[in-house]
Design a protein that fits this description.
There is one protein chain. This protein has 158 residues and is mostly beta strands. The chain has one helix at residues 2-18; strands at 35-45, 49-55, 61-73, 81-90, 93-96, 101-104, 109-110, 112-113, 117-118, 120-127, 133-140, 147-156. The termini are far apart.
């Protein structure tokens, strides 16, 4: 009785570990993850950031920029807005989007995004070799005492 039960349990364990599995020969040989080519964490920012190069590709490729910005100290009487703007060159020329992220100096918390509504954005794009991938942070309205933080990661997808 115990011998038959032991064999049944053993067969069940073998079946559980082998069902749905793929042989090693069926897996891709060169499976890779995206490579992080640039990252930044800029805290306690109180002024605009002029055009800044994140990365200059050596070859054409597909990239993804993940960016998050937040007002860490607001000014309730502020009349200004902060704008994060990335730029790159693809097959059709220079690309830029002034409304990827924006945050009011009067509102504490994450910037707004035209892509995800609140907090951050993930932007896939093609970039040409030798042409820099850049960003700026601009402020409309007068300086107001608000403080922001900007975080980004740029990955090469292929």
């Amino acid at each position: 009785m115990y011998k038959a039960l032991s064999v049944a349990v053993l067969l069940l364990v073998v079946f559980a570990f082998t069902s749905g599995s793929t042989s090693l020969g069926a897996l891709p040989i060169n499976q890779t993850s995206p490579v992080i080519v640039a990252r930044g964490a800029l805290r306690n920012q109180t002024a605009p950031i002029p055009t800044t190069t994140m990365f200059s590709p050596k070859a054409d490729g597909l990239y993804q920029l993940t960016v998050y910005a937040i007002i860490t100290q607001s000014n309730p009487t502020s009349q200004s807005t902060w704008y994060f703007t990335p730029a790159w060159v693809d097959d059709s020329g220079t690309q830029t989007d002034n409304e990827v992220l924006w945050g009011s100096g009067a509102n504490y918390g994450p910037f707004y995004s035209s892509i995800t509504y609140l907090g951050g954005a993930m932007i896939p794009f093609e970039a040409k070799a030798g042409m820099p991938i850049t960003y700026t942070v601009a402020q409309t309205g007068p300086p107001d005492g608000s403080v922001y933080a900007l975080y980004y990661t740029l990955e090469r997808l292929e």
